[in-house]
């Protein structure tokens, strides 16, 4: 059956990427993902049409204008050069849609991809580009969690049960499975529009210990939350019937983030409003979790120079009082340049602080009243009031600063 071909391609691409690019722990991670996906080849009874992978998805890639860097030709040679040819898989019985998730993953997650008829929508170009951004970030999230479960499997803080009998590992296992469901949901929606999924990046940087994990989990989840807020605003104008699944994902991500915050001894929710991010800001934060060279498909969004904070470093537990200044290295800018940090926080307009540079070290005050995570971007202008406007004039950033 046609779906078999494209599913095998996915599996082979994963196996191929696991063979060559990734360091050992990530190789295991990629192998584990391949196993998960492989299990999806088993036909499973499902009424959901969201999940059907169509061979036309693969064919459509080459001609899609939204997919500038998808090259199906790069997937096929990789797969065939490093994997034995797959035997033809058994044909799923008619009327049984193939699924991208194993039953075990859905069980761990607390449920699978939504059933029922697909949302009625024409999938605007805006929706498709937004779903690809969400797909890319969910892919990095799920890889990040799977990698942490692997690399921290001997870490006592991560694995010891707390008073409720559950360890951080137990909860992260469920969250990792939920990310796979989110990813499959987005990919199912993309496939309804005959668009391919954004393939996962192979090399996700490992975490060193539980505090490092909690800090990064808070950050990557906040990036996902931030961009989904923005995507929802955008889809409200073009594809209102797509708001349902995405808004359900948004609140689930917020619950996950509350867990990471609390595990780091923070209040579950630091602010009355979560902080919306531009696609480009969220994309650049997500990219900081991976080796971009290991991403088979980058998005058609700018990759910004990083804003390298020397203080404060982003840790799992917020300081008792919020930081009052940041310092960062300022290469390539002159001390006479007039520079500013634009601060993105909650639903407020951008606020700015002056940058002073001395001996290559730059300092900026943190404006009063920022809570949760604030995102800082280096800029020469102070006129933008929205995160989109700030993104357009960002010289370096965004850098995340944990306020509370
Ligand atoms: C984890 O549990 C083991 C066995 O009960 C105990 O010896 C160890 O001190 C605990 N470590 C942490 C960090 O909780
Ligand atoms: C937590 O994870 C351990 C190790 O995988 C497992 O044995 C245990 O059943 C899990 N506990 C809960 C409450 O899920
Ligand atoms: C997807 O492709 C199928 C088969 O070519 C076609 O029938 C369908 O209309 C396409 N859907 C969209 C949203 O383009
Ligand atoms: C941040 O560090 C990177 C790598 O060292 C460097 O290439 C980049 O120029 C730095 N960014 C700024 C704004 O100094
Ligand atoms: C930034 O510097 C300008 C002078 O260049 C000064 O007028 C302004 O008050 C400063 N802003 C802050 C927040 O310190
Ligand atoms: C940012 O740049 C894009 C692309 O040039 C433009 O469409 C958009 O209007 C700009 N946004 C703002 C707020 O300036």
Automatic annotation (TrEMBL):
Record bears the keyword Signal: yes
Region described as Disordered: spans on this chain: 69-96
Leader peptide range in chain numbering: 1-21
Protein name stated in the entry: Uncharacterized protein
Low complexity bias locations: 69-83
Any Pfam family: Ferritin_2
Domain of life: Eukaryota
Lineage of producing organism: Eukaryota, Fungi, Dikarya, Ascomycota, Pezizomycotina
Species the sequence originates in: Hyaloscypha variabilis (strain UAMH 11265 / GT02V1 / F) (Meliniomyces variabilis)
Keywords: Signal
């Amino acid at each position: 059956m046609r779906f078999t071909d494209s599913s095998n391609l996915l599996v082979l691409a994963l196996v191929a990427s696991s063979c060559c690019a990734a360091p050992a722990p990530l190789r295991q991670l990629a192998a584990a993902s391949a196993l998960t996906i492989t299990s999806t080849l088993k036909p499973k009874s499902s009424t959901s049409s969201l999940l059907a992978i169509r061979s036309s998805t693969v064919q459509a890639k080459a001609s899609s204008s939204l997919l500038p860097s998808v090259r199906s030709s790069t997937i096929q040679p990789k797969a065939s050069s490093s994997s034995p040819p797959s035997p033809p898989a058994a044909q799923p019985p008619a009327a049984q849609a193939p699924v991208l998730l194993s039953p075990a993953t859905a069980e761990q997650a607390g449920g699978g991809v939504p059933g029922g008829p697909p949302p009625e929508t024409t999938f605007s170009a805006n929706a498709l580009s937004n779903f690809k951004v969400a797909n890319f970030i969910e892919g990095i999230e799920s890889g990040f969690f799977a990698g942490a479960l692997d690399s921290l499997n001997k870490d006592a803080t991560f694995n010891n049960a707390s008073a409720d009998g559950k360890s951080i590992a137990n909860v992260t296992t469920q969250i990792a499975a939920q990310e796979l469901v989110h990813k499959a949901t987005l990919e199912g929606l993309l496939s309804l529009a005959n668009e391919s999924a954004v393939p996962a990046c192979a090399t996700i940087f490992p975490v060193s210990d539980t505090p490092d994990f909690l800090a990064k989990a808070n950050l990557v989840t906040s990036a996902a939350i931030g961009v989904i807020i923005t995507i929802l605003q955008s889809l409200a104008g073009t594809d209102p019937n797509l708001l349902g699944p995405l808004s359900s994902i948004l609140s689930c991500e917020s619950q996950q983030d509350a867990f990471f915050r609390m595990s780091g001894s923070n209040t579950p929710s630091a602010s009355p409003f979560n902080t919306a991010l531009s696609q480009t800001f969220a994309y650049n934060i997500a990219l900081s979790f991976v080796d971009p060279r290991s991403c088979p498909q980058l998005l058609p969004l700018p990759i910004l120079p990083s804003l390298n904070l020397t203080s404060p470093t982003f840790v799992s537990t917020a300081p008792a009082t919020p930081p009052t200044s940041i310092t960062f290295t300022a290469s390539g800018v002159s001390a006479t340049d007039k520079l500013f940090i634009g601060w993105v926080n909650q639903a407020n307009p951008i606020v700015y602080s002056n940058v002073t540079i001395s001996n290559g070290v730059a300092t900026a005050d943190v404006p009063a009243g920022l809570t949760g995570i604030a995102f800082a971007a280096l800029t020469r202008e102070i006129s933008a009031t929205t995160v989109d406007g700030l993104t357009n004039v960002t010289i370096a950033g965004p850098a995340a600063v944990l306020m509370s």
